[in-house]
């Protein structure tokens, strides 16, 4: 893996904490990467500004301004797929659809949606023990399940409840439009960021059941662990930044509002109209 460095950073931190903490931001593009480490103080660091030099010689600023900017930057890394026949972009709702819309628009290819649902652990819904996707796909973090002692009955109960929500969301998002045919297509699966990789893992498995020619996982930012999950499942991974320590996806955006179902439906309808036009 070649290293071609360029990263400038300024960090604002809690000055009451003295223990140093090391951070590395990595820009991955296919089989090349570039990075330079930066140090900030332990506590509640707020990233003020980072500049990453892309392989093409342009600069990318971190954190991203918003999902729109992240999608446009991601599209630039995928420019070889622009106007290519048989390419489809699929967004993971909700926030991933906002990013995917910009990717699909820049590449001038169709956009579709892949609803996924995280399986939260009992009593800690935000802690994912797995995820489900259409077509009966379920991935589980067996190590976490064993560590927490989650009974099988609880896993099945949570899966059943999330499956109902997934099916309802898919009907709502599509608004009567059928899923795009993925067989023998190049599929670019997009999310706005990946922390654990469970939902993207499930989505990748669901897409591959349709026998596409090639599957690309594309995200603006991911944790190192999640990047490993994507690399093990996708044919190609496009990821702009892999910060360490990662903390959360939202840390790497200046503006990271919750995306509503209405916005997902609007973007999907707008993309469908643009392709018809």
Summed up:
The chain has 277 residues and is of the alpha/beta class. The protein has helices at residues 67-77, 95-107, 142-148, 152-174, 198-208, 224-233, 261-276, and strands spanning 2-3, 7-12, 20-29, 32-41, 46-53, 59-62, 87-91, 111-113, 117-121, 124-133, 137-140, 186-190, 214-221, 236-241.
Describe what you observe in this structure:
The protein has 2 domains: 62 residues, no CATH class; 214 residues, Rossmann fold (3-Layer(aba) Sandwich). It is 33% helix and 31% strand. It is built from 7 helices and 14 strands. It has an 8-stranded mixed sheet with strand order 1-4-3-14-13-12-7-8, sandwiched between helices. Strand 10 and strand 11 form a beta hairpin. Helix 2 runs parallel beside helix 7, helix 4 crosses helix 7 and helix 5 runs parallel beside helix 6.
Please tally the helical runs, counting DSSP H or I stretches of 4 or more residues: 7
Portion of residues in helices?
Answer: 25-40%
Radius of gyration: 19 Å
Would you tell me the overall average pLDDT? 81
Q: Tell how many strands the DSSP assignment holds.
A: 14
Q: Structural class of the helix and strand makeup?
A: alpha/beta
Reported for the largest beta sheet, the result is: 8 strands, mixed
- Give the strand line-up of the largest sheet: 1-4-3-14-13-12-7-8
